[in-house]
Design goal:
The chain has one domain: N-terminal domain of TfIIb, CATH 2.20.25. It is 0% helix and 29% strand. A hairpin with a 4-residue loop joins strand 2 and strand 3. The protein is globular and about 25 Å long. The chain starts with 24 loop residues before the first strand and ends with a strand. 20% of the residues are buried. InterPro entries: Trm112-like (IPR005651). Belongs to the UPF0434 family. This is UPF0434 protein C8J29_10962.
């Protein structure tokens, strides 16, 4: 990694999808939190999850 902080996986326990309120899966390779139910992937930038639907990538 090039100095980018890694996502703190302990935060995953507290975060839910803003659309479905379901749990999220962490994709370390893409630095995303994935909501399988909503079929959205939320980016993690500088170690901070961006939980905005407008910023999410459709799966």
């Amino acid at each position: 990694m090039t100095g980018t902080p890694l996502f703190d996986r302990r935060m995953l326990e507290a975060l839910v999808c803003p659309v479905t309120q379901a749990g999220l899966a962490y994709d370390a390779d893409r630095q995303e939190l994935v909501s399988k139910q909503a079929r959205l992937a939320f980016p993690i930038r500088d170690g901070i999850p961006i939980m905005l639907v407008s910023e999410a990538r459709e799966l």
